[in-house]
């Protein structure tokens, strides 16, 4: 199980922040952040909340009581769904003989651009669909 310090350091590095940059964001000394990351010092609840809010995770996640937040799990599922869908589309495009537009065959670059746009649109649709909740599920 990861410690608070390990999780904090991993989150900070995943967001490409130096200790100094993140310490400035939290309004604490760089040495204090270093002590948090090495588990030599425990932050106050207020600082824990500030860190959790900044990285969009729960304090339970920071403390090692849960693996990921619900939103992250949902995003991971969406990414897997999109990757699966894009793989299927790519396979279908490869199977087609002479993919054309307006009588002209599409070159590899154009096909890649088409796939990138399809992926962007799929991400947008996923985002829009998350905002819609049917009335029967509203309480």
UniProtKB/TrEMBL annotation:
The HTH cro/C1-type domain, residue ranges: 8-62
Keyword Manganese: no
GO molecular function ontology, one term from the record: DNA binding
Pfam family, one: HTH_19
InterPro entries: Cro/C1-type_HTH, Lambda_DNA-bd_dom_sf
CDD domains hit by this protein: HTH_XRE (cd00093)
Keywords recorded for this protein, A-Z: DNA-binding
Highest taxon, organism lineage: Bacteria
Keyword Zinc-finger annotated: no
PROSITE patterns membership: HTH_CROC1
Stated name of the protein: HTH cro/C1-type domain-containing protein
Organism: Peptoanaerobacter stomatis
